[in-house]
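Internal ticket #5521
Category: modeling
Description: The requester needs a full-assembly model to guide mutagenesis choices. All entity lines are attached below as received. Residue total reported by intake: 952.
Assigned to: D.W.
Attached entities:
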Amino acid sequence: MNRASFAFVIGLLAVFGRGGSIHAQETPNLAEAYREPAGRILGAALTDVEGWEKLSHLTTQIGNRLSGSTHLEQAIAWAFETMQDEDLENVRRQPVKVPHWVRGNEHAKVVAPVERPLSMLGLGGSVATPPDGITASVVVVGSFDELDALGRERVEGRIVLYAVPWMGYGRTVQYRGNGASRAAALGAVAALVRSATGRSLYTPHTGAMRYADDAPRIPAAAVTVEDAAWMRRMIESGADVRVTLYMEAQTLPDADSANVIAEIRGRERPEEIVVMGGHFDSWDVGQGAHDDGAACMAAWQALAIIKRLGLRPRRTLRVVLWTNEENGLGGGRAYREMVGEAIGDHVAAIEMDGGAERPVGMGFGLDGVEPEDTQNPAYEAAYARLRQIGRLLDVIDAGEVSRGGGGADIGPLMQDGVPWLALRTVGEHYFDWHHTNSDTLDKVDPRDFRRAIALLGVFGYVLADMPDRLVPPGTP
Amino acid sequence: MNRASFAFVIGLLAVFGRGGSIHAQETPNLAEAYREPAGRILGAALTDVEGWEKLSHLTTQIGNRLSGSTHLEQAIAWAFETMQDEDLENVRRQPVKVPHWVRGNEHAKVVAPVERPLSMLGLGGSVATPPDGITASVVVVGSFDELDALGRERVEGRIVLYAVPWMGYGRTVQYRGNGASRAAALGAVAALVRSATGRSLYTPHTGAMRYADDAPRIPAAAVTVEDAAWMRRMIESGADVRVTLYMEAQTLPDADSANVIAEIRGRERPEEIVVMGGHFDSWDVGQGAHDDGAACMAAWQALAIIKRLGLRPRRTLRVVLWTNEENGLGGGRAYREMVGEAIGDHVAAIEMDGGAERPVGMGFGLDGVEPEDTQNPAYEAAYARLRQIGRLLDVIDAGEVSRGGGGADIGPLMQDGVPWLALRTVGEHYFDWHHTNSDTLDKVDPRDFRRAIALLGVFGYVLADMPDRLVPPGTP
């Protein structure tokens, strides 16, 4: 605890009544100890305009940022230069090789029993169709079980349509990820997947797919909820629905990209690091506003605010804008490799990758501790500390700390023992916009964005500055 | 009141307690008098499956139904034949000449300072662009006042983008309807309009536009909320945004179409008519499910249920599926002409054209009586009677009768004195889907659709059967 904070604690023991004072004499309550710097961060974040200007620049002037695209490299160059202009410390680009998938022209249409265009987006990683496209009858399934029940006889030579209802992202996305190879294993010539969303206004959702090694590589695309439902009804009424799919998609040699890194060097233990950020890449549609531009800009701006306020935490507070989360996780893996043996000095990893709707707090996890396990001493001690920090965010309804969560970019850190936090939001519409042309700046509420800056700033600062590490070294 | 109903009233005076019994001895409370037939209609409507099958056929097998299209004529032929098969009475097609606008191929893209496709839909009635399209700089306005403030100097030779925020349909739609001519009067070469909606998932909304006589006819198209916001931000940041618009739209000679009419002939006063329905045409996108297929199928099915139940009201209960509401109102006007001098025999006109979300009741209007006027004796007497009928629908939360409303197809009847009712819904998402590819069957909740059948069936039947006319003849 720094001197100014301690003076505040003395004065505030009466204010923070509920059971805080006695405990605070032994182990300072973090909400009390950090009231003053947290107030400065909150005040600056909640009135911030520069963060929004950055997000507006990123989404408006640069746009979406698929790995391998010039847009992503523009964004990386801009962030790198701007961070230097802001006198952030140790600003650098960590080179990362990333996959380079290119969509090319693509279209699909029903050609029988009626002719009708289908709104579609090829899935990331898909191969192309032959130059004349693929025309075949469609067979519709609602699950892998239904596919397997059909068997090779009724799948071979067909296009398989996965008209799978929305069951939440985790359960639904497996059809996007694995549907093509599962269908190809039974002889299908292409796969169409109902977009992974609970709400649609005739909006296709792209996203990554993977080919299994033991099945032919067939093209795969997402169609809208509306067209999936329509084709299903047509087929169920006895129609032989035939579709022509045309895709030019190709995977080029890996491209050069980079994680963008900036920090405020710790004043006492600079080798200890709290890292926070999001992924700078996006899909090649929309503007990558909620996924994950707003997170990158919020983490960056939180750091910029802390720097501008002259706050220098005990440990190093680092922001990373990871590259290539969407189709490879190259950035997160490269970052882990760079950390190397010093992984034990990573005190906490904070990721925001669930959109920038109104934040409610943080999820907290520790490798080897299940969310339902409330008996792990190290976890429980850290959880109590985090809830103290959360009290500083209660005033913007963002102070809830829950068990679990996680993040893709910080996954390699998580699995090697770094305690993690994941920013959580109300989560009302994120998956409506996810991986679509509608993930645009107009969907981000500037107030929610400012609240995210505040949340990242306060948690990042306190975790970097608190006297003890969140979790003792060598745990578990 | 028929004999069975009267017996019920005697038995039920105790059940319908609140202030009904004394009044009922003088003027029967309609909720009490019609409990028995209303219960039969409700029971049949709320368990109906044939109506949904009709709606599914219409949306799945036939699809959208723009005036002049073969789809609309297929729908008309199918309804005409099916109504005859159901032994509905006096089934006929009233010939109507309708406008025949054809969209053709169309596309738009930003060509500078970056190249990016724009999702768009030409507006109904628009002219085409020249074969090479129109390429020009975009000037953005948020209102007609802003347009006029720019003046000819800054509009001439440009494409005007109306980036007008959603202010409800009535206020926003004027930019779609009149924007092209207002811009052309200042020398604009084309008009783009932000889609008239409060929510978007990158979804353009089409709809009718009109050319003024005193301005050049320039092409007009809707763009998405997202692209309108993006272009506005680009322009406000100083960019010269240039767009290429290409449209093949053309207006062909008027086409043959028809209103489809069926009825149950009145047992006592067959010349007196309660008419109800919706419009059978739609825009040339989506499936015209909420707008207005579900209404047509609900009104038709309500009639079919009343017929099947063997209920024959005192007056004639008629269903009309009006043609050409969307771009001409030809069907509504032709119907009024057919009625001619006998307009005084039209006891009530009921229209459903606000989507098939969960119904809450009916709006009620009378020509010359403002919704806020609570002093008109004829209106108040009728309003009290309608509220009695509404009590029969309270059990499905659809019994509210409110002041005002209206309908386009019944407009010519309304203005000539026919009392009108307009089905009202919760109205949560109708304008998200309106005139888009997302107006599809999957957006209709079968339970809400059944409730609409019940609501139309009960109001239609009671209005056709109640001893006195809703409003005395010759009023006002």
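Resolution: model delivered.
Comment from assignee: The two ends of chain B are 26 Å apart (CA to CA).
Ticket closed.
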